[in-house]
Automatic annotation (TrEMBL):
Pfam families: YceI (PF04264). This is YceI family protein. Residues 1-19 form the signal peptide. The lineage of its organism: Bacteria, Pseudomonadati, Bacteroidota, Flavobacteriia, Flavobacteriales. It comes from Euzebyella saccharophila. It comes from the Bacteria. Keywords: Signal.
Length: 191
């Protein structure tokens, strides 16, 4: 009887010990071709939108819980999707120039998650370091994860990255030429 109780106790101890060992974090590579990053920027007289391609990306999970992420955007792929012809070419050229993203010197932008807090089932508040034009600043945004897909909406204040062209915060009397400081990124990921 004592031997049976002892064996049962050992089985329970070792069974519990194995069951409570931490699950190794798993890094899941993002399918860059199937994922999209859409930008939308605003001015007094309207808005423009377009896309930028991901060069690489990954999300890190502990079981089914999001714990981290890292992404690199190919800034040379920046395009406008709401214009055509000469206007489109002119806008894209200006966005890639030093007035805005300076893609000749800064071909990539990067986002690294620094803190991930669960806010509900499949929902997270993420703090990350966003690097644009070689300048790194923190951003906070929400991420939702469903199966092998994740979505996020990120508001970015471009002036924090030395992109001040047409900003009413830095220049007076711009009138209807004023471009708002914040732009939106809508991110749809598959992994």
């Amino acid at each position: 009887m004592k031997k049976g109780v002892f064996s049962l106790a050992l089985a329970l101890v070792f069974g519990v010990a194995t069951a409570t060992e931490p699950i190794a974090e798993e890094k899941k590579e993002v399918k860059t071709e199937a994922s999209t990053v859409t930008w939308k920027a605003y001015k007094v007289t309207g808005s423009h939108e377009g896309t930028v391609a991901l060069k690489s990306g990954s999300l890190t999970f502990d079981g089914d819980k999001l714990t981290g992420g890292e992404f690199v955007a190919d800034m040379t792929s920046l395009i406008s999707t709401d214009m055509e012809g000469d206007g489109k070419a002119k806008l894209e050229g200006h966005l890639k120039a030093d007035d805005f993203f300076g893609v000749e010197k800064h071909e990539t932008s990067k986002l690294v998650f620094t803190n991930v807090k669960s806010t509900g089932k499949n929902s997270y508040e993420v703090t990350g370091d966003l690097t644009i034009k070689g300048i790194t600043k923190p951003v906070v945004f929400d991420v939702s994860v469903y199966g092998s897909k994740a979505t996020a909406n990120v508001k970015v204040d471009r002036t924090k990255y030395d992109i001040k062209y047409g900003s009413g915060s830095f220049f007076e009397n711009l009138g209807d030429k004023t471009i708002y400081d914040e732009f939106d990124l809508v991110v749809d990921l598959e992994f």
